[in-house]
Amino acid sequence: MRRSIGRVFVAVMLLSGSLLVVGFSTGPVASRTGAFAVANKAAEPNCTICHQDAPLNGPNGSIEILDLPAEFTAGAQYPLRVRLSHSHLPEVVPRWGFQLQAVDAATGDSSGFFIYPPGLQIVKPTSPVSTFRFRRYLEHGADVHAGSDSASLHWGDPGPVEWTFDWVAPANANGNKVYFFAAGNATNGSFDQLGDNVYTTAESTTAAILVAVEPKPSALAGVTDLSPPFPNPMNKCGDLSFEIARAGRIDLSIYDVQGRKIRTIFSGWHNSGPGAAFWNGRRDDGIVAQNGIYFVRLMAPGLSKPISHKIVLQR
After folding, report:
1. Which residues contact 14 (CB under 8 A, 6 or more apart)?
2. 197 and 274 fall within a common domain
3. Would you state the torsion angle of the CA atoms of residues 206, 97, 197, 87, taken in this order, to the nearest 10 degrees?
4. Of 117-121, 139-143, 171-175, which has the strongest mean pLDDT?
């Protein structure tokens, strides 16, 4: 087993308690790795929910998960790297970010835990009934404007850039395959969602002794839920994640404090399972909404009244 020497690390169990999650500048919202469906868990969205002006996995860059062994030993510790590259224009002063997770192929939940240096962090879904509530995500930490640990964004580095950390394999692997999913955002440093490039990748490793394990059924029956908006207060883009128990027509909209609908985010048929959308702070007519308090409301099959969360627009 490899042991890290001369570095200060923080160990966080992937199945342990609550963790601080702040604005986009300190890392993306949980469950944005673009993971494909695993066991009874649906596929995840990716960062193009907000960063929409460039194609996903465009030709000018990539994200890689490096040093992952083909087979792992239960309980062993493995040093890993994430490498993100993109060919920026010479005048660009880029910022770089990533999010990564390890998922048990049999359950679709997190597998093992990460040991990581200052500047990185672990986040989790905010909703207790989210499809991905038992997943934990390793990602970059504080922004250069937030003060400490700004090096995790590799601000101004020409790239490619790398992040290093350790993964400790689960003690009871049962021969399971473990998938690693990662998403990276090579931004142009403009502090908005324009001109950024998102990349995703997936790798896998398997316990040395193979044991067939059947996927576990879902712990909870389908539940309809709307996660609190993130970040809140929001500036340019607010992430809106939700869960739909039964397929049907849904409506996700923004209302002002007088109860008037100012923006329809989505209205139409939606399959059961997780969903993701965003609000860019504009009304249906394209005009930027005034700073203030608004409400995100979700109406879906089986609900007697909408699920609502307050969101503050503060530009």
Report:
1. 102, 110, 111, 112, 113, 114, 122, 135, 136
2. no
3. -100
4. 117-121
Note whether 63 and 177 are same-domain residues.
yes
pLDDT at 209: 61
Write down the pLDDT at residue 21: 31
**Tokens of residue 77, six digits:** 């510790």
CA dist 116 to 11, 12, 29, 102, 113, Å?
7, 8, 19, 14, 10
Structural domain containing residue 81: 10-207
Confidence of residue 190 (pLDDT cuts 50, 70, 90): confident
Q: Higher model confidence: residue 209 or residue 6?
A: 209
Beta bridge partners of 150: none
Residue 1 forms part of a structural domain: no
- Write phi, then psi, for 129 (nearest 5 degrees): -115, 10
Residue 229 lies in a domain: yes
pTM recorded for the entire structure: 0.72
pLDDT at 150: 59
Mean pLDDT of 7-32: 48
Query: Which of 207, 236, 251 is where one domain is finished?
Result: 207
Q: How does pLDDT run across 217-232, given as a tens digit for each residue? A: 444 457 889 989 888 8
At residue 26 the predicted structure's pLDDT band, cuts being 50, 70 and 90, is low
